[in-house]
Amino acid sequence: MATLQDIGVSAGINILSAFIFFIIFAILRLQPFNDRVYFSKWYLKGLRSSPTRGGAFVQRFVNLDFRAYLKFLNWMPQALKMPEPELIDHAGLDSVVYLRIYWLGLKIFAPIAVLAWAVLVPVNWTNDTLELANQLRNVTSSDIDKLSVSNIPDYSMRFWTHIVMAYAFTIWTCYVLMKEYETIANMRLQFLASEARRPDQFTVLVRNVPPDADETVSELVEHFFLVNHPDHYLTHQVVCNANKLADLVEKKKKLQNWLDYYQLKYARNNTQRIMVKLGFLGLWGQRVDAIDHYIAEIDKTSKEIAKEREGVVNDPKSIMPAAFVSFKTRWAAAVCAQTQQTRNPTQWLTEWAPEPRDVYWPNLAIPYVALTVRRLLMHVAFFFLTFFFIVPIAFVQSLATIEGIVKVAPFLKVIVEDDFMKSVIQGFLPGIALKLFLIFLPSILMIMAKFEGFTSISSLERRSAFRYYIFNFVNVFLASVITGAAFEQLSAFLNQSPNQIPKTIGVAIPMKATFFITYIMVDGWAGVAGEILMLKPLIMFHLKNTFLVKTEKDREEAMDPGSIGFNTGEPRIQLYFLLGLVYAPVTPMLLPFILVFFALAYIVYRHQIINVYNQEYESAAAFWPDVHGRVIAALIISQVLLMGLLGTKHAALAAPFLIALPVLTIGFHRFCKGRYEPAFVRYPLQEAKMKDTLESAREPNLNLKGYLQSAYVHPVFKGGEDDDDDDDYGDDKLGKFEDEAIIVPTKRQSRRNTPAPSRISGESSPCLPFSGKEV
User: Fold this and answer.
1) What are the Acidic residues biased-composition ranges (predicted)?
2) CB atoms within 10 A of CB 472
């Protein structure tokens, strides 16, 4: 068990690590050849030019102004200068609201920390319960535990202080959450009202289109919406299964990268042709000329792409029973997206279309009926992943203790028993071991989310974030507290009567706070400081810039660092909310460490959002209900655990008062859900009508159909500079593909009964009040 000295050593190591990271960052960011890495967002926006293009030769690569190095922390105040409205224009509402999660943590825990240290710490400290327990060899404890509720004897009236503080913490947390929910909801509505025109404002995604023997999917979609939305339907784009084509295009891109690399390498030294082996990793196999080989492979892949593209365009089986349907107004799109289209609730399912950048195209090809089976399989897989992970995590953490190391490697006993090494192992190693063990988890959870079939990147990240949060709760929090407490108190369990075991557990659970303090310092202090270095993007940029970059477009792709990563960042923050709320009334010692995390992370990620991260999509803060719900869940968990803990302390009079807390918190959550959540799941028709009216007054001659017609065409059909096949298949075949999606002759036998002609096909295509079947 970590002592106060161990915590001090761990704090020193992590503070020193963070300081070193900041110094290295200050040196790297000032070098001109790293400018595109540490200020990539400004380059992608076209607002910054490379300092390597002018000045003396040496100054193009090395900053010789030594005065700049003296102000190595000036990026911190600069990160705080940009006002929030300007930051929304610069980075988007999603990024700004993501930052507000850190700010929410500061607003919640700063007053709680002051109150807990002013009231609870003196109440806990002025007892000798743990000293007596140690003398009786009943439990193990440290000086830090004397600041916790464990140091208060059973039946003590002092527990009323913790009950009153629990109510105070709950009331304050709920108040801050409500005000923040209201603020974010208003920001979202204001952002949507002021946002520039985007295709997703006029478009809905229609899924589970029923099959029809007389008409293709495209004809069926046109027919349905001309009848049911005759005054508002504009155009549509059917969804095709182009996954194999996309794989071939990606394969060609990789081959082109290797060809570029070898051509650049040969251009620098053309005295000898470059030879490569075709075996595994180039270690064995037939030796061939690298440039000739990749030219031949690219030519072969190009032919496969042409054949596959022709098949996708002409094969009816490649058309999925889904389509992106666009309307003349936002109001009409809102009505369609938020209403049931037919009496059968499993057909013609409509939802808001993701913005084109947010669409995850491979999953649009998954049949809708397969989604339920896929999600059930992933629920089962996640259950086993979560609970079977407890065993290896417990094993790894057991090795990160003095006893574990001595047991596995007895010859290290002399080294680990040194006071300093013991402090390092107990105060630093458990946290770093847990963090390293979880390094691959986000990738696994994202693969699972993709398998489930979500059609947008934002929904993939939100599902992955939800599962990451559950995993952290079970394996990082519950497993560490419960199994850790049980193992540490094992000797006490074996030498006492059964009716004393709940009491020992109640005393032991707060003692695990020392482990979480070390974890917070490793992950929340040094880990956040290490984020500023951007080591992976830095290395990848220089490798790509050296071996692959030929054009300015290549350089932009090489320096793009991606987005902030909601699926990994938000669950990480939620773990700190959980720890803070659980341990605030139990062990207030933990709160200052959490405050340092929220403050440091807010500054670091504000800097990264301003200068580095390039937002992949804009959901207008649609994720906030998830954030709010998880903080509420953490609050309820903290209340239930406090009830259990006080129950082991025989504080019987406290039980009725604590039972009211979760009930009140759930009631508060239901109020917020009814009052504020609709702004995040539905678009008010009043807002849509106002925006349509303003736009029609400002741009009366807007060609909206031309703007929307190709917005949701699959990317492999849109063409690009790097796709040579576009000359042959891009414009002509795409035009054919779009025409097939929009200009359709109606083939239904019942067309003589249709009350209105098709204004899209230019023919009279009357149909029945739509049922999908001939009458």
Assistant:
1) 721-730
2) 19
Evaluate whether 26 touches 533 at the Cβ level (below 8 Å). no
CA–CA dist 484, 431 (Å, integer): 13
At position 156, the amino acid (one-letter code) is S
Strands 349-352 and 203-207: antiparallel
If you average pLDDT over residues 426-430, what whole number do you get?
62
Higher pLDDT, 285 or 569: 569
CB atoms closer than 10 angstroms to residue 276: 17
Report the alpha-carbon distance of residue 765 to residue 753 in Å, rounded: 9
Amino acid found at 177: L
Question: Under a CB-based contact definition with an 8 Å cutoff, are residues 576 and 501 in contact?
Answer: no
Give the tens place of pLDDT for each residue, 432-462: 777 777 888 899 999 999 999 999 999 999 9
* CB-count exposure of residue 694 (10 Å: 0-12, 13-18, 19+): exposed
Return the H-helix or E-strand segment holding 321: strand 319-327
Q: Which residue has the tokens 């659980």?
A: 582
By the 8 A CB rule, do 510 and 645 touch?
yes
User: How confident is the model over 57-75, as a mean pLDDT?
Assistant: 73
Report how many helices (DSSP H) and strands (DSSP E) the chain contains, helices first: 39, 6
Structure tokens at 17: 């690590």
Which residues, 6+ apart, have CB-to-CB distance to 1 below 8 Å?
140, 141, 142, 426, 488, 511, 514
Cα–Cα distance measured from residue 71 to residue 448, given in angstroms and rounded to the nearest whole number: 45
Closest CA to 121 of 649, 588, 594: 588
- Among 474, 446, 473, which Cα is nearest to 458's? 446
CA–CA separation, 440 and 343 (whole Å): 45
Neighbour-count burial of 348, counting CB atoms closer than 10 A to its CB (0-12 exposed, 13-18 middle, 19+ buried): buried
Sign of CA dihedral 622, 623, 626, 632: negative
Q: Where are the beta strands (DSSP E) in 102-232?
A: 203-207
**Contact at 8 Å (CB) between 386 and 472?**
no
Residues 6+ apart with CB under 8 A from 45: none
φ, ψ of residue 327 in degrees (nearest 5): -120, 170
Residues 6 or more apart whose CB falls under 8 angstroms from that of 368 comprise 207, 208, 321, 322, 349
Q: What's the longest Cα–Cα distance across the chain? A: 96
Q: Note whether 138 and 637 are within 8 A (CB).
A: no
Report the alpha-carbon distance of residue 254 to residue 655 in Å, rounded.
Answer: 64
Indicate the Cα dihedral angle 672, 675, 677, 681, nearest 10°.
160
When pLDDT is averaged across residues 405-413 and rounded to a whole number, the result is 65
Reported as type and span, the H/E element at residue 180 is: helix 159-194
Q: What is the pLDDT of residues 255-293, one digit of tens each?
A: 888 888 888 888 888 878 888 888 777 777 888 888 899
3-state SS, 584-601, equals: CCCCHHHHHHHHHHHHHH
Give, in order, the Cα–Cα distances in Å from 371 to each of 287, 375, 453.
46, 6, 6
Region of 696 please: left (phi>0), alpha (psi -120 to 50) or beta. Answer: alpha
Kind and range of the H or E element at 236?
A: strand 233-240
Best CA proximity match to 527, nearest among 580, 468, 569, 561:
569
Which of 248-272 are b and which e, b meaning 16 or more Cβ less than 10 Å from the residue's Cβ? bbeebeebbebbbbbbeebeeeeee
Question: Please, how many CA atoms are within 13 Å of residue 332, restricted to the half-sphere of its CB?
Answer: 18
350 pairs with which residues across the strands?
A: 206
C-alpha closest to that of 29 among 88, 92, 72, 77: 72
For residue 8, give the 3-state DSSP assignment: helix
- Give 722-734 pLDDT, tens digit per residue: 444 444 444 444 4
d(CA 513, CA 608): 31
Helix (H, G, I), strand (E, B) or coil at 773: coil
* Integer Cα distance of 235 and 226 in angstroms: 10
Q: Name the one residue in this structure whose structure tokens are 């004897």.
A: 153
The Cα-based distances of 688 to 334, 336, 691, 693, 706 in angstroms read 7, 13, 5, 9, 21
